Amino acid sequence: MDETAPMSTDPLTAAAQILCRSTRVVCLTGAGVSAESGVPTFRDAQTGLWAQFDPEELASPAGFQRNPGLVWRWYMSRLAMVEQAQPNPGHRALAQLERILPHFVLITQNVDDLHERAGSQRVIHLHGSITRFRCSQCGAPYQLQPQDREAEMPPVCRLCNGWIRPDVVWFGEPLPPEALVQAWDETGQCQAMLVVGTSGVVYPAAQLPVVAREHGATLIDVNPEKGPMADLADIFLQGPSGVILPQLVEKTIACRGDQHET
Q1: For residue 80, what are the domain limits?
Q2: C-alpha to C-alpha distance for 229 and 200, rounded to whole angstroms
Q3: Who's near 216: CB < 8 A, 6+ residues apart?
Q4: Is there a single domain that holds both residue 79 and residue 153?
Q5: How far apart are CA 2 and CA 245, in angstroms?
Q6: Which of 25, 45, 60, 176 could form a cystine bridge with 171, CB 3.0-4.6 A?
């Protein structure tokens, strides 16, 4: 692509041109991407029996200490929902961008593994992963066993006898330091940032697009409706990620001349 060519007036084409001209691209995804695969948000999943509980009773260290069995059963039900879901075209498009761009890193606020199942390899989980488990006391990793899924109580760590918990960030807990450092480092170096399916109101993740802009990156917001992020973005692409992102990939491939990637 000619680096001196003028930017298109069509937002989708302009976004593809930005990606083509960028040697480092970061994508930040939020709940909207998973919702398109049928994965409900934390609060949306609180239906039926679970609707009677305060969220902090189901997802906080104090709640887990008071009633580990309740919290464990809640997370086993959420894990089952995640496992039944399938990656959507938006997930697959982001995995394809990783393959065709020189340096592409995906930072997600989602705790599911749909990005990985779609083929993304460079994924930073800011809020942990519901598919991983660890001891609540010593932090040792734990491999979930078939019998654990229907158990009334969480399994016990073989090293210290502490309760096993999902490796996700609960209310009142800090984000994983290593993931946060990686996210800030990648954001500070990128030339372009895609923000997909997130409202931009949950901190500290919502600070990442601001950091990217402060370091000179072009911000591209992909969302069904305009929100706070659209006001910050250089380009706003309105629509579901499962519709917009495959189109963006096609235009990016055409822009790069990598037709064989299709």
Answers
A1: 53-84+130-168
A2: 6
A3: 191
A4: yes
A5: 23
A6: 60
pLDDT of residue 43: 62
Of 45-49, 101-105, 135-139, 252-256, which gets the smallest average pLDDT?
A: 45-49
Asked if residue 39 has pLDDT above 70, the reply is yes
Indicate the SS3 state at residue 242. Answer: helix
Cα 251 to the chain's mean position, in Å? 23
Whole-angstrom distance, CA of residue 27 vs CA of residue 30: 10
CATH number assigned to the domain comprising residue 194: 3.40.50.1220
247: three-class secondary structure by DSSP: helix
What pLDDT shows up at residue 45?
Answer: 55
Model pTM score = 0.91
**Domain identity same for 112 and 235:** yes
Q: What's 52's DSSP letter? A: G
Please give the average per-residue pLDDT across 6-20, as a whole number.
89
Would you state the pLDDT for residue 51? 61
Measured distance CA(147)–CA(61) in Å, rounded:
24
What are the φ/ψ torsions at residue 238 (nearest 5 degrees)? -90, 125
Choose the catalytic residue: 125, 127, 215, 260: 127
127 in active site: yes
Mean pLDDT along residues 16-25: 97
